[in-house]
Design brief:
Blueprint (H helix, E strand, L loop, with lengths): L1 H27 L5 H6 L5 H10 L6 H13 L14 H36 L4 H15 L2 H19 L16 H34 L2 H8 L4 H26 L6 H6 L5 H11 L2 H29 L7
Helix pairs in contact: 1-13, 5-6, 5-8, 5-12, 5-13, 6-8, 7-8, 8-10, 9-10, 10-13, 12-13
Amino acid sequence: MVQFLVKRLIGFIFVALCVSFITFVLGYNAPGDPIRALLGQHQDPVLYAALRHQYGLDLPWYQQYWNFLSGALRLNFGYSFHIQGKPVSELIVQGIPFSAELGFWGFVITLLLGIPVGVVAALRANKWADTTLMAIALICWALPTFIIAIFAQVGIVWFDKWTGIQWPVANWGTAWSYTPDDLQYKIVPILIYALVGFAFYSRYTRTTLLETLRQDYVRTARAKGLAERLVVYRHAFRNALIPLVTSIGLAFGFVIAGSFFIEQIFNIPGVASIGLQAINDRDYPVIQASVLLVASCVVIGNLISDLLYTVVDPRIKLE
């Protein structure tokens, strides 16, 4: 186990270095000048030079990257270009609770709906239940998230118009608070987040379970006279979970930043929304910190999926 964790730690450091360097190079070579964009029409040469020096943009590229990297090791990503005097780490920390809450509950609902629906569809393969459930899943999978979100907002407006309930169209309320008012803000974005994941997991669970049910050891278990419920859940479903574990771990990695369009459309002040705003403002320190956070979450998700392998199948050893 120790050897496995050491290997994963080395891999994490390598991934973080690669992601940070690629993000820095893209930002460094991006067209336009963030300081000129910040100053707008007030192009005072003295102020322009002072701001470039303040943010270290007058240094050689390798010195800028080293300053970013050494600061990142201390969780110090410098200051925002767009919001002067605001540390980037504070901006990211402010957005994490909102993104984490949206991603966590969306992920939980995704698994609670997607996997059981996939099991039902596999057990009723090529029957009306399977056809109906997979058609719904395909529609949810085919429609882009932002289209579903926009239709949901239109539906809320019509709902408010005809009922007079005044269900909120956007915003999030207080993070990790579940008063009736907060729940009104959160239910729709969470369900939309879960819909796309539901479509993937229901179809993927159906496919893996059908493949497992065709295996020889399942036929042998049936030939021995075991009850169908035991055959499905003790022999087939447990083994069908193994390929699902990888996707679950990767999906967990996107809990923090897997909701770019939802946060933007519903005006949720999460990490994804902060990152998109930073791209529009050419706020490179915020962009770099956001991308590094996403990469860290994906690596942690991979680690979780590796650890889950041993839970699903004890024969798998971590080396």
